[in-house]
Amino acid sequence: METAAEQCDVAVIGGGPAGSTAAAFLARRGHRVIALEKAHHPRFHIGESLLPMNLPIFERLGVLEKVRALGVYKRGADFEADNEQGYNTFAFDRAIGNSPPHAYQVWRQDFDKMLFEHARECGANAREGHEALSIEQRGPRETRLEVRTDEGRSYRLQARYLVDASGRDTFLSAKKSCGARTTSIRVRRSSATSAARMRARARMRATSACTGSSMAGCG
Length: 219
Ligand SMILES: Cc1cc2nc3c(=O)[nH]c(=O)nc-3n(C[C@H](O)[C@H](O)[C@H](O)COP(=O)(O)OP(=O)(O)OC[C@H]3O[C@@H](n4cnc5c(N)ncnc54)[C@H](O)[C@@H]3O)c2cc1C
What we know:
The protein is an alpha/beta fold. Helices cover about 35% and strands about 30% of the residues. It folds into two domains: about 1-50 and about 105-175, 3-Layer(bba) Sandwich (FAD/NAD(P)-binding domain), CATH 3.50.50.60; about 60-105 and about 190-219, no CATH class. The protein is built from six helices and ten strands, in the order βαβααββββαββββαα. The strands form three sheets. It has a six-stranded mixed beta sheet with strand order 7-2-1-10-9-8. A two-stranded antiparallel sheet has the order 3-6. It has a two-stranded antiparallel ribbon with strand order 4-5. A hairpin with a 2-residue loop joins strand 8 (about 130-140) and strand 9. It is elongated. Residues about 180-195 and about 205-219 have low confidence and may be disordered. The site of flavin-adenine dinucleotide has 29 residues, from helix 1, strand 2, strand 8 and helix 6.
């Protein structure tokens, strides 16, 4: 006999910024949300440079003060350029529209942990060390997930809606067998961006060290 599946309105795969944000907003609206993160926070992740337009989202989410507390104040960013200094500085206060004049630089492990815990505080059942292994679409409002914990226990989850926030793992597309191609494209692009970012970061550190300020790239 088939074992009963645990029920929820929304299952969220992935406890990065996307998954935690979706889980928090949905739980706050009263939906039963189960969020699955295969790793344990804090876990290493790349992508620490936030942008000004993230700030209104943090405000809606209710975490702006927490981001301020763990982030480094940033008034702009440097972009690689073929000029004498090797980069152009973009000051956020020169942006068009209602964009805030600054952003924050964060350690992703701390930032992601904070967002995941916030989702929990908002009412999401947020689980670490729980990996979604397979999916079965049984009907338009009936998705089944097979989940395994890192202690080796397996269970089934049945959700009316599924949010795939698995990041580079691309859970759903991988299950539809187009994952391999997507992965190889992303890896190539990442290494190029990674080198550029490392150079920009080195300059940022130099600027901060010289001025004694926490501002990135806007000396
Ligand atoms: C080199 C590089 C530099 C970058 N720099 C920046 C930057 O400076 N600023 C910026 O804003 N963005 C940057 N990015 C992009 C940024 O990293 C991503 O946009 C961001 O992490 C996406 O968040 P996410 O929540 O969608 O996915 P992720 O943060 O990747 O989270 C996905 C989560 O899902 C979990 N997961 C995956 N599969 C499963 C499963 N089957 N079951 C359970 N859990 C699962 C993973 O463990 C992970 O924690 C950079 C990316 C790269 C590659």
